[in-house]
Amino acid sequence: AVDATHLAEFHQVEGVIADKNMSLGSLIAFLDMFFKKMGMSNLRFKPTYNPYTEPSMEIFSYHEGLGRWLEIGNSGMFRPEMLRSLGLEEGVQVAGFGLSLERPTMFKYSINNIRELVGHKVKLSDIAANPACRLDKKMGREAEQQSAAVNKI
Fold first, then answer.
1. What is the 3 state secondary structure string of 16-81?
2. For residues 80 and 83, what is the distance between their CA atoms, to the nearest angstrom?
3. How far apart are CA 25 and CA 138, in angstroms?
4. Which of 13, 17, 28, 107 has the fewest CB atoms within 10 Å, measured from its CB?
């Protein structure tokens, strides 16, 4: 059901990390740093079942405005049988995680109702005050070209 923390659909972001001797502890440390960079430092991890990862964890953060813990993602270590066909080097472990764009946005901008992010409830003043991308700064190739031009002078 659609409510203050659930939409009928959501946008998902996924990540994969592969490294020798990668462990569940490594994944937790990475997720802790990843979410701290988005302003979420109060995390909890709860064991769960996912068909492709074992162990698997749901990731929760405490939302001050709602006064409760919200799931913000899911994660786990890929099962060995999922990795065999990839031909990975011995000792390489693979972790994966996924999260929606909407719930972390609720935390970043102190939004108490996820429905304020879509449709007729969107406040245009919020969009103007919190742009998703910066148009006042050259980035990527445009910045490289500008830098190269300046260096030629």
1. EEEEECCCHHHHHHHHHHHHHCCCCCCEEEEEECCCCEEEEEEEEEEECCCCEEEEEEEEEEECHH
2. 5
3. 38
4. 13
CB 58 within 8 A of CB 45: yes
Whole-number Å distance between alpha carbons of 11 and 4: 16
Tell me the two tokens of residue 52: 């492709």
**pLDDT tens sequence across 39-83:** 888 899 999 999 999 999 999 999 998 899 999 999 999 998 888
Residue with tokens 């991308």: 133
- Supply the pTM of this predicted model: 0.74
Here the tokens at position 146 are: 């500008």
